[in-house]
Amino acid sequence: MSRLIVISNRVSVPNPMGAKGAQGGLAVALSAALREYGGIWFGWSGQETDEFTGHLDVQRNAGVTTATIDLEAQDVDEYYNGYANRTLWPLFHYRIDLTEYDRNFGEGYERVNARFADNVAPLIEQDDLVWIHDYHLLPLASLLRQKGLKNQIGLFLHTPWPPARLLVTLPFHERLVTSMLACDVIGFQTEEWLESFLHYVRKELELPVSDDGSIEYEGRTVYARAFPIGIDYDDFVEGANSPEATAAYEKLRKSTRGRKVLIGVDRLDYSKGLGERLDSFGRFLTVNPDMAKDVVMLQIAPPSRGDVASYQQIREDLERKAGHINGAHADVAWVPIRYVNRGYPRTELAGFYRAADIGLVTPLRDGMNLVAKEYVAAQNPDDPGVLILSRFAGAALQLSDALLVNPMSADEVSETIKHAIDMPLAERKERHAALLASVRDEHVGKWTDDFIAVLANPVSEDAAPLEAE
Fold it and tell me: Is 366 part of the annotated catalytic residue set?
């Protein structure tokens, strides 16, 4: 049976079986896939070395084999902090005003992708399926082909894909996209991002594209599809019912003293719309003074990419906004915004989600957003909270029974918060039941099986998933 070779920028060593840690959605998804199908997860260790040697650190934890390499400081600066996070990330989230084009960034990106190819290629056996993840490694499939690999190679992009009119602002955009066409399957979170990619291929590369998303390139057929990712539903629900989650639930409910709780959980990133969210909540407090002291907003925002200047600015701006709103509205017994700049294990987050009457998930642009799905899964079906969700998150296409909002309109979000607070129990239960069915049925196992089925046999849309070990 074919093994699965997963390649991503970072490798998260899985927790021991049964332990509940703080792994993110992608890490949980890939760990689950590798436990089921077997194989290796390859990527950067997150550590720096004075001189790149290609040394592999191979480990086996919780049924998953990982192989990692260390990178030089210059690699990290140019490939990761530079091209990945100061060029591609803002561009793919439609923020060309923040996109930086630097030749050194591009050279570092190509160099590190070549190092990935050099070190992972010897680990790949003839019948292995290769699954590359995300914007850090877009040229990798082409580099593996140059080494003679004829394996089935798939690429999944976890971010949005920008419209062609934005992508063409990227120097050498044609070369980047044609390198992706060395894959057999290219996956996107939603039909919207898929359509943007296919439009670029037709318009800029002038390649034939079939109605089913098949692309003809250099005598090969590349299959582009949408595969919306989900959460590990059973594992998350188990964690949500754990003693740690119960303790977190009780802690938050007790400390808020019967007030309505709004919760947001996001990495500290400009794509998440955190500043706009605080502005919207501030507008709600101003417009609804009679309700203001009966609500509390908990915003959990772990820092990310601290070496990138724009992220340092985001943190300063949010701290200033939170302080301004609290200063304008708080009194000695109540502070409206609890702004927490740290992360929590998933089990504690599940308890916080359940304790929250409203989930605020309002990114300006997001590939999917699994926080929205986790919030739904954590709720008590007999007394569920209300999900307020940005229409610009990929999850909005599946979670249409949420209250969908334009996160850039403070008035709209403010009015929707009031609507959520006033919503009767019957409507809350009806909406939650529909949301929960989607989250439960479109779980990460289905996402994995769907992608691997097409990768193993891309010609047949009805291909059966590989037999698990």
Answer: yes
What 3-state class would DSSP assign to 333? coil
**What global pTM score does this model have?**
0.92
Amino acid sitting at position 310:
S
Q: What is the mean pLDDT of the chain?
A: 92
* The Cα angle at residue 76 between residues 75 and 81, in degrees rounded to 5: 125
CATH homologous superfamily for the domain 234-441: Glycogen Phosphorylase B; (3.40.50.2000)
Which residue would you say has higher pLDDT here, 34 or 459?
Answer: 34
CATH 3.40.710.10 fits 4-230+444-456, yes or no: no
Cα distance between residue 343 and residue 49, in whole Å:
27
Q: What percentage of the chain reaches a pLDDT higher than 70?
A: 93
Q: Which of 366, 401, 449, 450 is catalytic?
A: 366
Q: What angle do the packed helices 370-378 and 425-441 form, to 10 degrees? A: 120
Active site residue 158: yes
CA distances from 96 to 93, 119, 167, 195 (A): 8, 33, 9, 20
Catalytic residue among 158, 329, 432, 443: 158
213 in helix, strand or coil? coil
Least confident segment among 38-52, 67-81, 447-461 = 447-461
Contact 403, 388 (CB under 8 A): yes
Is residue 194 a contact partner of residue 188, using CB atoms and an 8 Å limit?
A: yes
Contact indicator for 413, 201 with CB cutoff of 8 Å: no
Closest listed residue to residue 93, CA positions, set 102, 101, 85: 85
